[in-house]
Amino acid sequence: MTRLADGRFVDDEPFDPRASILELERKDLDAPNWLLVWRKFKTHKLGLISGIFLLVAYLMIPFAGFIAPYGPNQRFSEHLYSPPQSIKLFHEGEFVGPFVYPMTSEANLETFQWEFSPDTSRPLKLEFFCEGKTYNLAGIIESNRHLFCATEEATIFILGSDRLGRDIFSRVSYGAQLSLTVGLIGISVSFVLGIFFGSLAGYFGGKTDWLINRVIEVLRSLPELPLWLALSAAVPSNWSPVAVFFVISIILGILDWPGLARSVRAKFLSLREEEYVRAAEMMGASSGRVIRKHLLPNFMSHLIASATLSIPAMILGETALSFLGLGLRAPAVSWGVMLNDAQNLASIEIYPWTAIPMLPIVIVVLAFNFLGDGLRDSLDPYQQ
Amino acid sequence: MEILRYAIYRFGTMLLTLLVVSVLVFAIINLPPGDYLSNQIAELQATGQSAGVAKAEFLRQEYALDKPLWQQYMIWMGFMPGPHGFSGMIQGNFGWSFEFDSPVADIVGDSLWLTVLVNLSAVIFVYAVALPLGVLAAARARTWIDYTSAFIGYLGLATPNFLLALILFYYGHRWFDLPIGGLMAPEYEGVPMNWDKVKSILVHLIVPTFVIGTAGASAMMQRLRANMLDELGKPYVETAIAKGMKPSRMLAKYPLRVAFNPFVADIGNLLPAMISGSVLVSVVLGLQTIGPTLLTALKTQDMFLSGFVLMFVALLTLIGTMVSDVLLVLLDPRIRYEGRGT
Known about the structure:
Helix content of chain A: 40-55%
Distance between the termini of chain A: 34 Å
Low-confidence stretches of chain A: none
Distance between the termini of chain B: 25 Å
Helix content of chain B: over 70%
Mean pLDDT of chain A: 80
Number of helices of chain B: 15
Largest sheet of chain A: 3 strands, antiparallel
Order of helices and strands of chain A: EEHHHHEEEEEEEHHHHHHHHHH
Number of strands of chain B: 2
Strand order of the largest sheet of chain B: 1-2
Low-confidence stretches of chain B: 337-342
Order of helices and strands of chain B: HHHHEEHHHHHHHHHHH
Largest sheet of chain B: 2 strands, antiparallel
Shape of chain B: elongated
Strand order of the largest sheet of chain A: 3-4-7
Oligomer: heterodimer
Radius of gyration of chain B: 25 Å
Mean pLDDT of chain B: 80
CATH topology of the domain at 115-301 in chain B: MetI-like fold
Number of strands of chain A: 9
Strand content of chain B: under 5%
């Protein structure tokens, strides 16, 4: 270290402009691609949080019955349109632990509404891992344990109850099963169709390309919702809820593939001329093998990112269809079906909590958007 | 003259697309098993009303529903003579609505131009909101203005349209005394146009326009912001600033013009989504557009009515896309007339 006349310090070592880069970058250059993507994705805080949130949400799906204190269609005729109950910790200044006050309902004959009043003299403690209505854990194991529930004399409606006295919180957690998976099934359908037609068009070109392109153009120029409506109106009303659910998600997927197919096609057009493709062809690889083994892995990650961005549209689509009564129908529980109850102004005004299922919808859709943005930004780890 | 030839070419492709769409629509409306009349006949027979059966049978023949599907299609479109000679879509006969027991044209009537009106005002709203906000968000990137507008934009994309509609209606009525439901005050329905009616329609349009336009506006705003940011990093912007040009003038004169292209081209993507939205919102808010008509027609399997509404909605989108394509060519001389490169 030398001190110059003007007071600056200068290092005596000869300066090698490449040294620092070489040392740092060598490790990076050798790192596998997924590590680089992951490293970059970690810096995208919003995307990371959304990803973790969605992971947790999807992992909770099989345990919906455990989390919900009641069954999805269990009715409490004494508690119609009960407002959300709060869980309290202190009773008359004393710590009791989580408890609720029992509610009694009374019909107000002037406003024709139910009025609820808590009995504040009796704190009833919540029970954990208690026994309640039986349900199927993950659809297989029969169980009757619930995460929490109220004692016999009280009810626990964290988010209130609906028109028929069903617990909204329980219904939201059961509804997640259908509402969250509808997007996944839909996107799988759209993924398969999009890759199939997109690669056909991009790889073979010529007449095939022309034909597929026209189909894509026609489908993209049509408004989705009226077509969704028309297609789901064609689902016979006597089908079981599960069948209707699958058909609806397939319908959502069928109209979504053109966008994906377009981007697949564009990628194929540019990658088709690469040397390694020609090499593979000369070694006698079949077209199917070239597409699957050499071309698709190149931009699979991009496709996944764009698929993430189109899941929200499907979730909203299911909601809209069910809301209009053409999607999933009553014994099935989804967020859209629940919102069907909040269809008129009166319920928004008098019973605002019936519109609560919109919160999970907004949050999940936002999370998918952020996750997709984060993925898209971090997929090109070599780009700054 | 080049532009005129392009417009004609574009019109031709639109007609072809419409033809394909008509086949698609006809297939879709025939997807449900049976048709309105055969269902009705079955129902009448089950309840033992033989008088109605004869009428339904008569209608079935009248509208050629007993013919094979491809013939029904040709008759519906007017490519083939039906029981009453050529009278299909292209001859201006839109068919008969069994549910309402009157011609389709009478039922949709007024709602057609109201649909156009609602969508047009939503498009104007999208441009009016997205343009200034997008430019502002880009010019003040990474400040609170940017973040707030991005947040509102994301929220607009994520909230289901119909709920936004209900909530806005409720609060709009409570705080601003906006009218609830419909597209005009009930006393103006069926009354010829006058100044008061126009005013009533305009006031009723506020909430639907806002609801239908929000999602589109936020998507377009984000795209404009991204395009502007790309342009703002370029050397010519730096030169302009170095010369001492006022930032607002500089923005409008150079980068905005470049970033403007996708803005016009995007209408092709935007319009289908907006028309979808308007159908949904109309059902929720009870607007007299064709949305509610479509829903009833689909639910009761009133195939000619739903077929016509679907065709109309598709036509509206196709015209919008065509206009945007022609505008784009006018705006950007770099685009060749043979159509946009892919």
